[in-house]
Amino acid sequence: MASTITLEVYRYRPEEESEPVFQSYEVPLRSDWVILDALNHVKDQEDGTLSYRWSCRMGVCGSCGMMVNGKPVLTCAAFLESYAPDPIRIEPLQHFPVVRDLVTDVDDFLGKLKSVKPWIVRDEEKPVEEGEYIQTPEELADFKQYSMCINCMLCYAACPVYGLEPDFTGPAAIAIAQRYNFDNRDQGNDDRMDVLSHDDGIWSCTLVGECSEVCPKDVDPAGAIQRYKLAGAASWWKSVLLPWQNR
Amino acid sequence: MNQNIHHTPHHPKWYRVRKPVFWWVKRFADIRFIFRELTSVAVAYSVILLVVFYRTLLTGPGAYLDLMETLKEPFWITVNIFALGAVLYHTYTWFNAAPRAIVVRLGKWRIPDLMIVGGNYAAWAVLSAAIFWLYVSG
Predict the structure, then answer these.
(1) B66 touches chain A (CB under 8 A)
(2) What does the alpha-carbon distance between residue A12 and residue A99 come to, in Å, rounded to a whole number?
(3) What CATH number matches the domain at B21-101, 1.20.1290.10, 1.20.1300.10, 3.40.80.10, 3.30.70.100?
(4) Does B107 have pLDDT greater than 90?
(5) Are A220 and B13 an interchain contact pair (Cβ–Cβ within 8 Å)?
(6) Which of 3.30.930.10, 3.10.20.30, 3.40.50.300, 3.40.50.2300 is the CATH number of A4-104?
(7) Is the pLDDT of residue A129 over 70?
(8) Range A186-192 average pLDDT
């Protein structure tokens, strides 16, 4: 096996060039190296101007998502050997504006995430003297899958709907909304339904399914959205058939 | 400068690429998705055809027989064969997607996806058999 592998890295330096170029780097092909290790090697040893995000290096922080050979992946979980001997093309997550090199602007996602109230909403908190909110293992199982989301935004890069319609709330934000909707301590379902049951919310999703394919935590955002659609349709029918129960 | 560049307002140096119209032609999975979406046209066609059937039935036997004669023309037979194939494929994808949307728990037990898919197919088979029975017995 070759002792090195080529990285074709997307470079965009707005002060130097009006559009991106690809720059090649030869890095050691080590069996224990992931792509992020190779980028760190480039940054430390070859070209300190290369910009990218990373933090935990263990698939938890969700910072190091990039397009690798056209597919969104966490670079801390993508081993060089699985791409060898061909060159590896590394680009920033698609569908997001590129600030510099592999760094994208994620404000759009953060705004959408905040809009779905990703926290436990209570109409009224019960006094501390009344004790904790009890939750059974079965109730935990209802939402645990969605709580595994690490906000890596790979699902946004994989979603063609988001690429075509940037106003779409997007997979992760809706999956996280479901994480709280299915939490028996939460009472914010109606608030989130108001935000998500419109054209830019759940109804924009056409179930391409790529968001779930690329999710490194098996959250299944596509499934979360389809469940939301069912709940949205049921809510609409309820409002038509039982109008006196409307808020 | 590349025509695809669309700079973000207030951040003119940020680089953004518009998604091309034919983004889906590169991967088989995307082509399959677009094909699935296009089969919705066949579903809409089938619904319209059903409405036309009802209308001719309400109009009278003459109108119904005229419609049947029209549908025997090679053009309409071809259209309906394609529509049937597309609707069957659409149904298959719909049933397979059902467990993503329907999560049913009976106490601590979550009904497996396979049973939800199987339930859809079973309901389809029963309804088809009932319609077939009505057809042969009428």
Answers:
(1) no
(2) 8
(3) 1.20.1300.10
(4) no
(5) no
(6) 3.10.20.30
(7) yes
(8) 94
Question: Helix, strand, or coil here: B14?
Answer: coil
CA distance B76 to B63: 17
CB contact under 8 A, B100 and A163: no
> Which residue in chain B is spatially nearest to A20 when comparing CA positions?
B15
**B5·A208 Cβ contact <8 A:** no
pLDDT higher than 90, residue B6: no
Which residues belong to CATH 3.10.20.30 in chain A?
A: 4-104
Decide if B19 touches A, using CB distance below 8 A. yes
Architecture of domain A107-241 in this structure: Orthogonal Bundle (1.10)
* Domain limits, CATH 1.20.1300.10, in chain B: 21-101
Q: Is the pLDDT of residue A102 over 90?
A: yes
All CATH 1.10.1060.10 domain ranges of chain A, comma separated, are 107-241
pLDDT category, B11, cuts 50, 70, 90?
low
B105/A contact by beta carbon, under 8 A: yes
The answer to whether residue B5 neighbours chain A at the CB level (below 8 Å) is: yes
Q: Do A153 and A73 contact (CB within 8 A), yes or no?
A: no
Alpha carbon distance A53, A55 (integer Å) = 7
Q: Which two tokens stand for residue B124?
A: 């389809």
Q: What angle do CA A203, A206, A209 make, to 5 degrees?
A: 125
Q: Which residues of A touch B19 (CB under 8 A)?
A: 95, 160, 163-164
| Closest partner CB to A208 (pick from B1, B14, B33) | B33
Spatial CA neighbour of A192 closest among A224, A166, A163: A224
Nearest CB to A105 within list B14, B29, B101: B14
- Secondary structure letter of residue B68 according to DSSP: H
**pLDDT tens-digit readout, A130-143:** 999 999 998 999 89
* Cross-chain residue pair B15–A229, CB shorter than 8 Å: no
pLDDT in tens, B119-138: 999 999 999 999 999 999 97
Residues paired with residue A98 on neighbouring β-strands, in sequence order: A104, B15
pLDDT at position B1 over 50: no
Using alpha carbons, list the distances in angstroms from residue B43 to B87, B90, B93: 6, 8, 13
| pLDDT confidence tier of residue A198, bands split at 50, 70 and 90 | confident
Could you read off the pLDDT of A165-185 as tens digits, one per residue? Answer: 999 999 999 999 999 999 999
